[in-house]
Amino acid sequence: MLTNIPYKFKQLLLGAICLTTFFVSCTKERGLTEDPYAGGKKPLDLSFVSKTIDPDVVNPGDVVTVKIKGLNKYINDFKVYVNEIEAEVVTASTNDTTLTFKVPAKASTGSMWITSQGQSFFGPTVKVGGKLSVDAGWKVINGATNTTGASTVFDIEALPGGNFLVGGAFNDFELKGTEKLPIGGIAQIAGDGTYTTSGFSFGKGAGGAGKLVYSITRIATGSQAGKFIIGGSFTSFNSTRPNRQTLNNVARLNSNGSLDSLILRDVINPKPQETYKNGDTVSAFNAGVDGMVRKTFVFNEQVYLVGNFTNYKRMYLPNSSYDEKVYDLTRMRQMVRVNMDGTMDSTFHYNKSTRQSAIGANGVILDAMMQTDGKLILVGTFTTFNGVQANHIVRINLDGTVDNSFNAGSGANSDILSIRYNATTNKIVVGGTFTSFNGKAASGINLLNADGSNVTTFNGQTITGGIASFVGQLNNGKIIVSGSFNKYGDYLRQGFMVLEANGQLAVGYNNTGGFQGTIYDMVETTTSTGTQVILVGDILRFNGTLPHNLLRLNFAN
Q1: What residues are paired with 303 via a beta bridge?
Q2: Beta-bridge partners for 312
Q3: What span, in angstroms and rounded, lies between the C-alpha atoms of 514 and 466?
Q4: CA-to-CA distance for 159 and 483, rounded, in angstroms?
Q5: Which of 94, 274, 352, 407 has the most crowded Cβ, counting Cβ within 10 A?
Q6: Which has the higher per-residue pLDDT, 21 or 385?
Q7: Is pLDDT above 80 for 379?
Q8: What integer pLDDT is reported at residue 123 of this predicted model?
């Protein structure tokens, strides 16, 4: 019996094949040979011959001619668009092989195309000139990079001599780092964007934890003038040795970029035979926290730390050895103020009876700013602060309590992602996912007076297709907005736009093409012809260029 199984299996398999062949043959006879796409629209015999526009850059209102093929058949039934804005056709100069049109007044850089009978035919890119341009003299080539992860630039700090410090998540910059000596989260660039180490020696930079620098603040006056406070996610600076991982997300750097350190003598040494452990070198700024520091500020010889942390940490030197460090912890949620030696100021955001901070925000602090009087304004996902209603924005008094004189009223009805203050205009601009602010319709952008009240003359249009994740006002009142949106009102703006102080699109400054990425900070410099603005972040593409996370724009007067 068993010997017949292979034979019977072959018979069954042969029968199945025959049956399948029969069904397929019958199906073919019923019309499988018919075109399954029959009845669909046939493509029009219309195509572009020109691959580029001449001249390379045109202005709104300019008359442009491109070569085309087969237009006569559709001469009375077609439209021309430049980056989704319909263009006027110059009929007297348009024929079967030539298409002439005017660049729309509201057009921005992007592709042009023809539509006819429900079909679209794409032509060359139209580069629209105007008062805003990517600076061709900016010398960043490879920018911030990271061999293991993100390379975002989070902060830029202007230096007195015209150079800048940038901080972020990178471990290389302009491909100048090595495996032995990485560029850990902090670098210096010259005024033209060139990477330079002149006057600075950061060594290996930030290491441990997230290995990133979120915030750089230069100390302008006082006993530590010229030095820097850096905050972020790191446990060491210029060291990869395990027993040197003694920092807690904040440090003070000397004016040359080295860690501001202190040499100790007569340190506890459990191993007397290792005499070099009788002493130690520690951070002179003996302060830290147990989570990420998002923002650092300096005011009146004191340092403010704001971020996502629960405890303030300070090294207890009498019980610490070369290899083992002991820390004192104080519960301080989200913000703390410390003196220049790192000791905590217990007169700020601290309850002496409970020996800990007030409860702080019931959500995440995403951004913060300091006004000229030292008061902080915090924004984020929270709706209360210290138990007091504070819808996504709150101003903090110098003792850490909620400032009830801040006139933000009911605040925002959803998250605020970005806040910037301009001392020249004395205005605050906020951006996020909100649709109203203190009873006023506001589609993700709003302009405030210094006291938190709405600027009544600012009336923005509706943002669609995404959100505004960054906002910043220039000294001339114009407002830079970036994010993931694609329209502002009825106008196509792909992730980037410039507004007037009244909320309208700034005429002549919205000629640039699409933006992709996230901006985190900006710095403005006045020039003889206008303004230059450096933008940093996770900037992937802008106006057809690859900025590598650092971008400089020219704003003409």
Answers
A1: 298, 338
A2: 289, 330
A3: 14
A4: 28
A5: 94
A6: 385
A7: yes
A8: 95
Angstrom distance (rounded) from CA 132 to CA 538: 21
Could you tell me the pLDDT band of residue 41, with boundaries at 50, 70 and 90? low
| Calpha distance 314→285 (Å, rounded) | 9
Contacts of 529 (CB under 8 A, 6+ apart): 554, 556, 557
pLDDT at 174 over 90: yes
Question: CA 272: distance to chain centroid?
Answer: 51
Alpha carbon distance 415, 310 (integer Å): 22
Q: According to the 3-state scheme, what is the secondary structure of 472-516?
A: EECCCCCEEEEECCCEECCEECCCEEEECCCCCECCCCCCCCCEE
Q: Which helix (H) or strand (E) holds 58?
A: strand 57-58
Q: 556 to each of 133, 432, 536, 543, how far by Cα in Å?
A: 9, 28, 20, 17
Torsion of CA 61, 67, 68, 73, to 10 degrees: 70
pTM: 0.87
503 Cβ contact partners less than 8 Å away, ≥ 6 residues apart: 445, 447, 458, 459, 460, 461
Three-state DSSP state, 33: coil
Q: Is the pLDDT of residue 15 over 60?
A: no
pLDDT band at 40 (very low <50, low <70, confident <90, very high): low
Q: 331 exposed, middle or buried (CB, 10 Å; 0-12, 13-18, 19+)?
A: middle
Nearest to 60 by CA among 135, 126, 134: 126
Structure tokens at 147: 């061999």
High-pLDDT (> 90) share of the chain, %: 85
Q: Report the SS3 class of residue 99.
A: strand
> What is the separation of C-alpha 546 from the centre of its chain, rounded to a whole number of angstroms?
15
> Among all chains, which residue has been given the structure tokens 């340092």?
303
* Tens-place pLDDT, residues 94-123: 999 999 999 998 889 988 999 999 999 999
Do residues 308 and 364 lie in contact, with contact meaning Cβ atoms separated by under 8 Å? yes
Measured in degrees and rounded to the nearest 5, phi and psi for residue 15 equal -65, -40
First vs last C-alpha separation in the chain: 98
Contact 311, 289 (CB under 8 A): yes
For 15, residues 6+ apart whose C-beta sits below 8 A from its C-beta are none
Residue 98 burial by Cβ neighbours in a 10 Å radius (0-12, 13-18, 19+): middle
Q: What is the DSSP string of 343-397?
A: -B-TTSS-BTTTTB----BSS-EEEEEE-TTS-EEEEES-SEETTEE-SSEEEE-
For 274-305, give one letter per residue: b (16+ CB within 10 A) or e: eeebbebebbbbbbbbbbbbbbbbbbeebbbb
> pLDDT (tens digit, 9 = 90+) per residue, 407-429?
999 999 999 999 999 999 999 99
